């Protein structure tokens, strides 16, 4: 009788230990899967920010300094749709004529038709936490170059997951551009 009770207790302890070992292995695996999923969504949002900033720079010669300015541009800005046709007087076909045939909304071009431009500012998987956006200029070879930087901190888009794993260096905040280099690349590229 005593032997059976000890075996039963040891069996329960063994099952608990197996469960804890399994969880200690699977917790980081589940975290990595969720990290990959969330990072992908944040990167998609950052690509939209990049597209909007590059279009803003084409029109205004500098990057938008805030999301208020960028959202306004997405709501009210328009991009010309240009048709390029060969010059009928040019027999070598080296010259062409550019003909503006229509205008499309910047917001529809960057975000897709019918999407709310306000959403570009928010980090996915947060309760309307905003991406940090900075813009300015730097000097390179005596030339003033416009720059911008957008940052989605990992602590925000990974909120709700294991804090111990979030603090590890291998998990990065998603950044786009740089305030010290003329670049519009993201740290995922």
Give a brief description.
44% of the residues lie in helices and 22% in strands.
Extract low-pLDDT stretches.
none
Instruction: Determine the N-to-C terminus distance.
Output: 66 Å
Number of helices: 5
Helicity range of the residues? 40-55%
Q: How much of the polypeptide forms β-strand, as a percent range?
A: 15-25%
Radius of gyration: 26 Å
Specify the structural class. Answer: alpha+beta
> What overall form do the CA principal axes indicate?
elongated
Map the helices and strands:
Layout: H1 2-60, H2 67-76, E1 78-86, E2 96-105, H3 106-111, E3 132-140, E4 143-152, H4 154-157, H5 163-166, E5 174-177
Antiparallel strand pairs: 1-2, 3-4, 4-5
